Amino acid sequence: MSTASLFPHLLRPLDLGFTTLKNRAIMGSMHVGLEEEKGGFDKLAAFYAERAKGGVALIVTGGIAPNIAGWLAPLAGRMSSPRHAKKHRVITDAVHKEGGKICMQILHSGRYGYHPFAVSASNVQSPISPFKPKALSKRGIKSTISDYVDSANYAKQAGYDGVEIMGSEGYLINQFFCQRTNQRDDEWGGSLENRARLAIEVVTQTRQKVGPEFIIIYRLSMLDLVEGGAPWDDVVYLAKQIEKAGASIINTGIGWHESRVPTIATSTPRAAFTWITQRMKKEVSIPLITSNRINTPEVAEQVLADNHADMVSMARPFLADPNFMAKAMRNESGLINTCIACNQACLDHGFERKRASCLVNPQACYETELIFKAVASPKKLAVVGAGPAGLAFATYAADRGHKVHLYEQSSEIGGQFNYAKQIPGKEEFYETLRYYANQIKRTGISLHLNTKVDAALLKKEGFDEVIMATGITPRELDIEGADHKMVMSYIDVLRDHKPVGKRVAVIGAGGIGFDVSEFLVETQDLTVNLDKWLDHWGIDKEYKQPGALSPKEPIKGGRQVFLLQRKTTKVGKGLGKTTGWIHRSSLANHKVQMMNGVSYNKIDDEGLHITIAGKPMLLAVDNVIVCAGQIPFRTLEASLLEAGLKVHVIGGADVAAELDAKRAIRQGAELAAAI
């Protein structure tokens, strides 16, 4: 069997008439923060070039504003002058040198702009921005259209193969199209034709300006997933008009940023929204791109084979592995570093105004800084602990040419990942463990499972250096009754699977506390059952209501869980910016009582005695599960140093705060690059 035949639909070229895309994979738009950094364009060039070299057919940049009012934030990326075009040339040249194609996304933030110059169809403030937008005047609308057109033309001058016009996710064009945000009574509001006018004019005039041999992708919001969103018939009308206006391709946009429905998080099933693109294929004849939670070649191939779309857009998967397509072509999908949709180092960084990267691939967006050169003089290295930090260090160091022995006292690699993979909605961690297992084989690492090491053994084996990645130990509860039989640690629940009662108090509302609570209350495997997941989040596949929302069915029965924290801040405040609200909503749906400002008094046969706001309270529970933090587990360190061994401490053994896999993997990678 030829390699190409394994993914025949994914690897098939797409002829656009004036140009041909070499396969059906698009690297979707991601704003990574390099756009505004000093020297960022050279770093962006390296970032995109690596993905072009890896075989993706077409890259779409992060959103670039057509004018100052369209900024996402002050001094954000903008394309509105020849000077801007000249700066972008280093990016397009780098991509073309590697045989790739690249489109620049034109994004006007509208009322999502995090600045006082924000504008929109009407002066309706966004719930996720502190700035109330100014309603654009008729003159301002025409000027904005001209700015879109000029931006596309400057992109062409910069060497881009095309542009993507962002008409989705609740940004400016989407704001004009939906009655939720368009309260105008002139020719730009009211009727469907008037509300669609901005989108149509932007595409029409852009095509006239850039000519026929330039890719224009229009990102169409096919599911708004907000109250007052567009009805399906309106979406179809706009799609048909965009096709007539001269778009080359229509891309699928899912959900506004203010939507209370998860669309790309780990708990969202794979390919959860391709059905809406399939529905649109019956309405238009130009190629359609589908998107959201497509993260393996196998899933992409199935989506295309089922005729749900003509192309698939994958953004974060190309952060996780720039060689995604090259590995698919070589029938090496088992070696792909799969995106786990955690958002921790990509989207969360974006919302924190930090440079994006990737939890499973810390080299993403650091291609010019985190470099793994082959070693001239290989060392014999011992890595103690096969959790995230140990796995990252071992595989990167072995890839460089070091002789690596990886010791793990349990029967499997993964460390804390083996707990995370059991949490409903976090099954993608299985993929990370599969990737590391295959990397261990590929790089020739000597893996020693079920092996507890000591300084004498490591000294005897003659290791040049020892990397201690021994992880953490749970922090014990320091209150009266902490040794009561009803008290359990999260290790008891997630590793040892000890039975848990019907009424449970979880002490500690960090990431582990939320994970344990989710594990205890979620009885359905929603991540792998799309229809149940859609019902759970109130998404109407029949699209009977505008925005495609339907009432959520209340969850009945199940465990009664109390999630408690000492801090008086909002429970879950420390969770990820883009995923924390999902975890809180999920637990709220299961009637988990989240309580802050809690003082723990004692545990006895009656239950857990607490005080809140000066008032004593008894929680009559069957079990108390302790998720109250961790401390580094580094008892081996002293004996290693005493034996004269050179020791490096990484991961949880170094800093145990909240089991930070992002930091652990990066720390392992950085040490591997330097050693």
Automatic annotation (TrEMBL):
Family annotation (Gene3D superfamilies): Aldolase class I (3.20.20.70), FAD/NAD(P)-binding domain (3.50.50.60), NAD(P)-binding Rossmann-like Domain (3.40.50.720)
Gene Ontology terms, MF aspect: 2,4-dienoyl-CoA reductase (NADPH) activity; FMN binding; iron-sulfur cluster binding; metal ion binding
Residue ranges annotated for the FAD/NAD(P)-binding domain, each copy included: 380-648
GO biological process: fatty acid beta-oxidation, unsaturated, even number, reductase/isomerase pathway
Pfam families: Oxidored_FMN, Pyr_redox_2
Keyword annotations of the record: Flavoprotein, FMN, Iron, Iron-sulfur, Metal-binding, Oxidoreductase
Enzyme kind, highest EC tier: oxidoreductase
Cofactor(s) needed by this chain: FMN; [4Fe-4S] cluster
Tree of life domain: Bacteria
InterPro entries assigned to the protein according to its UniProt record, in alphabetical order: Aldolase_TIM (IPR013785), FAD/NAD-bd_sf (IPR036188), FAD/NAD-binding_dom (IPR023753), NADH:flavin_oxidoreductase (IPR051793), OxRdtase_FMN_N (IPR001155)
Domain NADH:flavin oxidoreductase/NADH oxidase N-terminal as annotated: residue spans: 10-330
EC number: 1.3.1.34
PANTHER family attached to this UniProt entry: 2,4-DIENOYL-COA REDUCTASE, 2,4-DIENOYL-COA REDUCTASE [(2E)-ENOYL-COA-PRODUCING]
Protein family membership: In the N-terminal section; belongs to the NADH:flavin oxidoreductase/NADH oxidase family.
Name used for this protein in its record: 2,4-dienoyl-CoA reductase
